[in-house]
Amino acid sequence: MINYISEQELTLNLQNCIIVDARTELEYSEGHISGAVNVPLDPGLMDQNGNLINMFEWAAIMSRMGINNMTTVIVYDNGNGANAARFWYTAKYYGHQNIAILEGGFYEIRNLSVTKDIPVMPHTYYEPVATPGYMCFLLELIQNFELLKFVDTRSDEEYSGKISSGNPKSGRIPGAIHMNYERLLDGTYLRPAIEIREIAEGAGLTVEDTIILYCQLGMSSSLAGMALREAGYVNVWVYDGSMYEWTRHPALAVEV
After folding, report:
1. Residue 238 pairs with which residues in a beta bridge?
2. DSSP code of 54?
3. Is 146 helix (H, G, I), strand (E, B) or coil?
4. How many CB atoms are located within 10 Å of the residue 6 CB?
């Protein structure tokens, strides 16, 4: 299945999918696509430290939304796609195949019906299966550190160590290259694949690399992961704990 879907394409397939709103509960309550169910990242897809929920929690969320393993899911957020991409990566990690992100997000909607009504969804059975190739975790990174190419998708100031974003250490994972996720966007839309590829190549990435993307909590790195996949990169992983976890581990260094 394609990774992105336009509003027009969604309009033609409304009866064949479940729409997920990945914005906050407040934003959802103020208006959402008719029929959409709300799954905010916090609380929802991540624990208090920004880490991935376990498969039993994921199964409960999907079942509560009326989603089974075969359901086509369309997810959207406010615009740039970072929250939606985090949901996409989580779904893929837990084995869901039929999922795409709505291009442009909520504020680019022109023709879809918007409502404050909350749909009542039938409970279903969902069986998650941890799937390699999407998200990675600290122990894996430490064990394979020399074989990986780390990419920091945060702001210039965070990458350089000028600001800490509340972390106990400022800086980046040693050896990480920088690819600010904002460069991959044209407004609320991803840039064309050819432009994304040029940016990635300019940062020193090749399709043969095993790429580990990270940010602060895994949202902008998920967006960058989606962008790289659209540009033809295959071995693209999101580091779940990102800098929130890395900087709080006493044995792990950062560089500036």
Report:
1. 135, 213
2. P
3. helix
4. 14
In this prediction, residue 80 carries a pLDDT of 82
Give the pairing type, strands 236-239 and 135-136.
parallel
How many angstroms separate the CA atoms of 182 and 81, rounded?
11
Task: Please list, residue by residue across 235-247, b when 16 or more beta carbons sit within 10 angstroms of its beta carbon and e when fewer do.
Answer: ebbbbbbbbbbbb
pLDDT digits (tens, 9 = 90+) for 224-243: 999 999 999 999 999 999 99
Classify strands 149-152 and 211-214 as parallel, antiparallel or unpaired.
parallel
**C-beta neighbour count of 85 within 10 angstroms:** 29
Whose tokens are 């696509």? That residue is: 33
Q: Is the peptide bond before 43 cis (omega within 30 degrees of 0)?
A: yes
How many whole angstroms separate alpha carbon 95 and alpha carbon 135?
12
Which residues of the chain fall short of a pLDDT of 50?
Answer: none
- Global model pTM greater than 0.90: yes
Contact 233, 196 (CB under 8 A): no
Coil, helix or strand at residue 210 = coil
Q: Are strands 135-136 and 149-152 parallel, antiparallel or unpaired?
A: unpaired
Say if strands 32-33 and 114-115 run parallel, antiparallel, or are unpaired: antiparallel
Q: Please tell me the number of Cα atoms within 13 Å of 57 on its side-chain side.
A: 12
Q: Give the pLDDT confidence score for residue 46 in this predicted structure.
A: 81
Residue that has been written with the tokens 């992961």 in this structure: 225
Residue burial 127-153, b: 16+ Cβ < 10 Å; e: rest: ebeeeeebbbeeebbeeeeeebbbbbb
Question: Amino acid identity of 24?
Answer: T
